[in-house]
Structure prediction request, 278 residues.
Amino acid sequence: MRVTTFPPRLHVLLARDAPLGVVIRRGPSDRVATLLWHRQRDTFELGQWLKGRLYERRCDLSPSGTHLLYFAMNGQWKSESRGSWTAISRAPYLRAIAFFPKGDCWHGGGLFTGARRYWLNDGYGHSILRDTEEVTRDRDHRPDPTYGGECPGVYYHRLTRDGWTFESHRKSGPWTSVDHFERPLLHGYRLRKIAHAEFARIPGKGCYWDEHIVIEPDGTERPEPDWEWAELDGARVVFAKKGALYAQRFDCKGRLAAPTLLFDFAPMTFEARVAPYT
Prediction:
């Protein structure tokens, strides 16, 4: 029997006030690595690997790039983590300085609402195993519940916070929907994000996945179905495609130039690493 293999899936969190980012690399499905992206020089620093699932659309990076908030699951339901948990760590590492066991995969994760404040997507509730004074919980933040409590309920709020405009919502079945977001680029270009949410897992994509369209100044649409993540980074467009990260700059005439490979994450394999803090 032939086994189909897929390139690692990539999702990226960009710091709003610093030239940093965290790349979340998943592959195989129960292995995930986090890396710090120094965006000024396009170098990547490995943080840690997790044996389990990290829900990238329920994660966030603090404005300074110092702290990572994430939701993860390893299925060890009788452990102190209760099998799933929300945590805050020092990016790009996963060792928790704040640790909130969940016990299920409803809700979880959250968003940073300020430099050192965060909203916890609590839902049916977390317990507190470890807390920190480095960041504090924002109990006054009440995001619009329109998108629900799971991945879109964090991810879509992160998109609109970071410069995307919600354009439309379409349901194509009881558990299937497509949401369109757009953001301006430079020189009259725009980027459309088509966010899919489906009950059935699509091989190589999962229940939640994105595709993108670049809209040129004259309105011409250039579909980029293989871009699984894309964003404006200063004066360039950065995107993930087939396990690698690329950048596209604008040329002297204001047109998007050919993409440049920044890093190919496909060859990476699991390695046990210890965070440089306790």
About this structure: The longest strand covers residues 190-202.
